[in-house]
Predict the 3D structure of the following.
Amino acid sequence: ELLNIVNLSNQFGDVAASGNPADFIPVLQYLPSHTMHLFKDINKRFNFFVQKIVQEHYTSFDKEHIRDITDSLIEHCQDKSAGEDARVPLSKAKIISIVNDLFGAGFDTVTTALSWSLMYVALYPDIQKKIQEELDLTIGWERRPRLSDRGSLPYMEAFILEMLRHSSFVPFTIPHSTTKATSLNGYYIPRDTCVFVNQWQVNHDEKLWKDPSTFNPERFLNAAGTEISRTESDKVMAFGLGKRRCIGESIGRWEVFLFLATMLQQLEFSLRPGEEVDITPQYGLTMKYKKCESFQIKKRLPTTSSP
């Protein structure tokens, strides 16, 4: 099932990467289109996969043992203790839609963020060493990283911010629409206009960043290297902006932190010497680098005990 969802996610990215003219000229949806046929087939298979997961959760549901968000949604539907009028009704179809959104919005984005993170630590071993020294000093080896450690790992946080900025692997936000006529920097934008935020441009604007093409996590740290500069971190655009920014931003940042901290605590990443690696982004819904066969991974040996 894991391989199935990975493959479906990759196929969806390949088909949807360049967009579809029917998104902008609706009448084209009625013309024969091989790409549209593939798009519909992938979505049908993905929906079947999610329906199967939700049905299995219904079958094995135990309100005394909530395993994940699907169980929590089912519990919410069945809980009548607050009164029928006080709770928000959720049908089985809506639960399927919510779980579908969680997979669709969070699976490829988080895995792509981790993929770029591992590429950067392999390309810049000195930066990887600084992250691991911070992990060793703050957490040690007797336990795994926790969310509560984020505030104590400023260099790790700075690295994640720089990964988001430098890669800008979500170059544009998903399409939005203006709800009324407005103007921006002297440009008139009519109501109901499809608009995108160019996150790549903001993250590489020379007016905002010193040497934007250089990968440098320390740009986000104060002079002592002990705290994140909120002035600088707030300039990074990865989840949109305003009240319509990505609703999953918090959980996305948590996931990237936990996965990456755990991996770098236990493992060391490198690239085979003498082999060139092409990290030119491949345009798509999320931008990835070309498949890399040069990764080397080895287990780290404990150096210090937990503080």
In short: Residues 183 and 189 are 6 Å apart (CA to CA). The chain has two domains: 1-90, 107-307. The chain has nine helices and six strands. The mean pLDDT is 88.
